[in-house]
Amino acid sequence: MRSVMFRSDTQKRTWNNDAFFANLNIGKESLTINVKDPCGLDLIKDMIKHVDIVSESFSASVLQGWGLDYETMRQINPALVYISISGFGHTGPHKDKNTWGPTAQAMSGMTAASGVPGRDPAGWGYSYLDVSAGYMGAIGVLAAVRQAIKTGEGCHIDMSQVETGLVLVGPMLTDYLTDGKRTPSSYPNGNRSLDAKGQDAGYRGDTAPLSNIYPTAGGGKDDWVAMTVTQNGQWQKLCSLVADLQDYARLDVREITSRLCEIEGMLKKHFANRDKYTAADELTNAGIPAAPVQSGKDRVERDPQLKHRGLIAQADHPQLGKHGIQDLPYRFLDDGPDWQFTSIFPILGGNTRAILHDILGKDDAELEMLAQEDVFWPEGIPHEVHIEKSKW
Amino acid sequence: MVNRNNCAYNGLRVAWVGDQFSSFLARILHDLGADVVQVTDDVETTTSDRYVRHYQVAIPCYKSKDLRGDLRDKDLIINACREGEGWPVLNLKAMQTLQADNPRQIICTITPYGMTGPWAGRPASDLTLLAAGGFLGSCGYDDGKAAGLPIGCSGGQSNHIAGMVAAIAVQAALKQLENSPQAAGRRLDISVQHALSVSTEMSIPYWDYTHADALRHTGRHAMPRETPRWQHQAADGQYFLALPLYIDDKRFAMIKQWLDDEGIPHNLEDEKFQNADSREEHMFEIVDIFRDLVETHNTGWLFTESQRRRMPWAPINRADQCIEDSHFARYRQTVEEIGSVRRARLPFLITSAAEV
């Protein structure tokens, strides 16, 4: 993760100036301990006495291999909340299986739940379950800490990315578990909400007879507008906006599916000469849900709403200088203080001595001795490694 | 009720008005022990039974004749929009009134784009928010008949992302209140589009840090450059993920041995594949060999044998196939039952021997 994506103006690439890593880890300090050294392991156990949470995302047996299974940690600190986030969780026959985000997405059904009939799944253009398992982990940990404060009793949250996917795949799984109704063979159905028989195939929370994306002017990969028509009022507005649809205004919104092919043909013709932002403006001004398909560039450069919300904030990175990070997505309708990231970035081992001094009371002589004995950093491993090539 | 163990928020009184992009937050809070009730006015809800049972099975709903009175004493209000609307049920004035009645009450407003700004108040659907929030910018096809087609994931991810992002914020706001006995409850302004936009992993960083826009690729990460395929159709007809990432020397040696054992012809002994960097440059050729392996075997066998070699490969299941796997069906507490409804439980179990 420390060698994933560097800023284009970064000349000497190292473990400590990866732009993407910094984006994900703002607000954190860095403590390095050599766990293969018995003194290092003792330091970690001493730290466990003083912390509320231990969080890790190794494979199921790694911490156990270090002698840090939950029972050992609980003996040290009964109120500790330990969260492990792994592919399959720490129990069951698949617990030792090797997973990345895409593996968990494939396994859980998240990948298969996206695409057009008759094709391979369109899947996900990124590791959605890396992001969302992080969110779920944060929710679980916050609740567990609250519970531990009330009871004095911590717990082990054994979180599985695949199980996160099974929740996020939505009502389709509940349909199967409750009624035995398997995913229909025509599923998934592209961007539509309903399939050809008018059945809910999108599980998107709406059963819109007209919901799709249409190409707009420009012809670029993201020159599309998305639109959803659920209600009669929206349909009437659409018919008044699109000249070719005026004769269709007599249709009830539920009758759209029977004429979908010709209606969508007219919509494609209508949007073909419009910029995607103009098209979305016209539709939303008429009360019809619509939006441009936006790339990363669009959201940073063109989207006036995200600019207004403050999508990117500037922070001071010790090696990158001013560095843009994706800000917390929280805004308020009151006069209280905003929530902001602390402008701290984890430089490997940069806070080791300060943390051990502040939390464990280690003095300078003790810290120096531990450093000399390679407890903070294994012998022979350089502190800064030049990265020739980033992974992404 | 749902999970005896998840009881951190026992006693927290939550009212939920509006329904769009907010039912997952209501479910999360309920499943963590909060007393959540859905309060409606005279407008008929359009939510179908399928969604009600999935998100709201244990959440009571009642029609209010006195909204202000019914909401006054709650600790938290989830203030969302009705379907097709861009503004929440409780407007700013109504929120001010409630805050005056109960200054420590938290109000979490969830709208498509937030309460201020040029797009505030726009109506939205799951699909249009996946477009505006960047999901469609990264996901879709790059080949065949559907080449260039953005595809929005199904399942209601706008609701899910909004729910998760809001649940974190609500818990932080509750913690602030607990730490400050005199503090006022916060009025959170959650924008579903903003929540989605910070949940697209590398798409924004690619542009912000390298000025390159990611290209969508079928079934794999969007990247600014072409990449080899990850998914292939196995002999049993099911698709299989053969992830060609992080193939270090040890894994590479095991793959070669595996191919030899199966009699799959290959040229992986060629010098150009032996160094990790040059191997990466020739990944398209390696993936062609992976495809040959996948196409001639069934997914179950491929899963077992690839994982035995520490490869992060897996079948591309439907969710109903996954849940039948004994790992989940027998060994994990993946499924919960509430009355006649069976559903996947939230992926964390906060155990407690003590009463909260």
TrEMBL record, chain A:
SUPFAM superfamilies with a match to the protein in the record: CoA-transferase family III (CaiB/BaiF) (SSF89796)
Q: What is the lineage of its organism?
A: Bacteria, Pseudomonadati, Pseudomonadota, Gammaproteobacteria, Salinisphaerales
Q: Which domain of life is it from?
A: Bacteria
**Which GO molecular function, any one, fits this protein according to its record?**
catalytic activity
Give the protein name, as stated in the record.
L-carnitine dehydratase/bile acid-inducible protein F
InterPro entries found in the cross-reference section: CoA-transferase_III, CoA-Trfase_fam_III, CoA-Trfase_III_dom3_sf, CoA-Trfase_III_dom_1_sf
Signal peptide, first to last residue: none
